[in-house]
Amino acid sequence: MTDLVGVPQPAFVPPPRRLLALLAVAAARPLAGAGPRRIRAVLHLLRRGAVPATRQQAAAARQAVITVSPRCAADRSCLQRSLATALLCRAWGTWPTWCTGVRTEPFRAHAWVAVGSEPVGEPAHERGYTPVITVPPLPLTGNRS
């Protein structure tokens, strides 16, 4: 049996958000099978026009993803979970920083979303990775009134 990520389960996700979360999970699955260059290129395109996500928005997206998808709630599904979280944020008009990284003792790779430099929803044992690829939100430009 696969361990679940250390977050409260299950949470209530309203039907409209549930549908978007399911679509984000479905879109993230084939994207997770792509190579790093393709993933980065797709995410660079998708982040355009989005405002930076707040910690609360990114956490709500992550929670919705792991609530609707047992696969994404599993420890070993960090890539699909992080991609689905970023895609759901984008559907809401926001963008977190999407990250992948490694650590050496013991060697492991991991993917997550962050706001600023802080991972969102990651348990303490999943901290301490050196980012290798990051796709942050684009800086806000122009005069927004």
Q: Would you write up a description of this structure?
A:
The protein is an alpha+beta fold. Helix content is 42%, strand content 20%. The chain contains five helices and six strands, in the order H-H-E-H-H-H-E-E-E-E-E. It has helices at 15-32, 36-46, 55-68, 70-73, 78-91, and strands spanning 51-52, 94-95, 97-104, 107-115, 118-119, 130-135. The protein has a four-stranded antiparallel sheet with strand order 5-4-3-6, covered by helices on one side. A hairpin with a 2-residue loop joins strand 4 and strand 5 (118-119). Helix 1 crosses helix 5 (78-91) and helix 3 (55-68) crosses helix 5 (78-91). The N and C termini lie far apart (51 Å). Residues 1-8 have low confidence and may be disordered.
